[in-house]
Amino acid sequence: MKISLYTVTKNEEARLPLMLEAAAPLADEIIVVDSGSTDRTRDVAERYGAKFIHHDWTSIGHQVAFAESCCSNEWVLRLDADEVMSKELLEEIMKIKKNGPDCDGYKLRSGEMFPGYSKPNRWVKHYQLVRLYSRKAMRMSGKFGFDDVVFIKKTPQTRLLYNFINHYSFLSIRRTVEKRNVATDDQVKRALLEHKNYSPWRMVGCMVGNFFRYFILERYFLYGFWGFIHSVNVGYMRFLKFSKFYEYHQIREHGYMGCEKKNELYESEVGKG
């Protein structure tokens, strides 16, 4: 069983070494698809023997699908630059590699990491994502704004692994807010492409609702003040999505400060009509 590790990057010289250092022992091939780094990301990737490929960014869905297509092995492992495999997860996957797979794909637990924490809190409800899989059974969807897999085998079997990916999504509150801003641009573009229609009232309740979901129901309160900050940020991201959607339609309908009833942020992606 050979495994191709693939990731997408832009200016990830700080986090990429940790990810590659942890995952390189199980990878027979490493693919890094970059959308225009101006730092030392390329040097870091090539230091670990990665094949470094430039590909212009359109959306996360398009980018990861392209990166997957660059892999030469049937089995692939997708990791982001901010995702570091725990030693326990590495050992778990190495056993699978040695003994052979017992299903078509494996879900990995992605545990949030914050300053002051050496490992994810197992009692928090973390994401479970199919990240190690056979391309004969499933592929990246390639849809605008989606980075999930779609099944191409009629009845694929998946299994959840016990150990964690340590998800270092947090670099600073400033970087987190910038990331949320870019992500919600893509979310609005995707909603417009799919002809969705959101009520403006969703702006009103989404922040409180999502804060309650993450902080209480998904138990991020176990991370203390970092859990509070994370939950507020998630609620704020939902608010940005619905407020930008409202903004788009208001400017498109009424115009604003010479905009002539269009919104240049989204027009290039969704067309005019």
CATH topology of the largest domain: Spore Coat Polysaccharide Biosynthesis Protein SpsA, Chain A
Number of domains: 2
Put simply, the count of helices is 8
- Main sheet strand line-up: 3-2-1-4-7-6-10-5
The name of the CATH superfamily of the largest domain reads Spore Coat Polysaccharide Biosynthesis Protein SpsA, Chain A
Anisotropy-based shape = globular
Q: Sketch the topology as an H/E string, one letter per element.
A: EHEHEHEEHEEEEEHHHH
User: Radius of gyration, rounded?
Assistant: 20 Å
GO molecular function: transferase activity
Protein name: Glycosyl transferase family 2
Keywords: Membrane, Transferase, Transmembrane, Transmembrane helix
InterPro entries: Glyco_trans_2-like (IPR001173), Nucleotide-diphossugar_trans (IPR029044)
Description:
GO terms for molecular function: transferase activity. Keywords: Membrane, Transferase, Transmembrane, Transmembrane helix. Residues 4-123 form the Glycosyltransferase 2-like domain. This is Glycosyl transferase family 2. The chain crosses the membrane at residues 220-240. It contains eight helices and ten strands. Helix 5 (173-193) packs across helix 7, helix 5 crosses helix 8 (264-270) and helix 6 (202-217) runs antiparallel to helix 7 (225-254). It has two domains: 3-167, Spore Coat Polysaccharide Biosynthesis Protein SpsA, Chain A (Alpha-Beta Complex); 173-270, no CATH class. The longest helix is centred in the last third of the chain and has 30 residues, at 225-254. The chain starts with a strand and ends with a helix. With 273 residues, it is α/β, with parallel strands linked by helices. It is globular, with a radius of gyration of 20 Å. The model has no long low-confidence stretch (mean pLDDT 90). Helix 1 links the parallel strand 1 (3-9) and strand 2 (29-34). The strands form two sheets. An eight-stranded mixed sheet has the order 3-2-1-4-7-6-10-5, with helices on both faces. Strands 8-9 form a two-stranded antiparallel sheet.
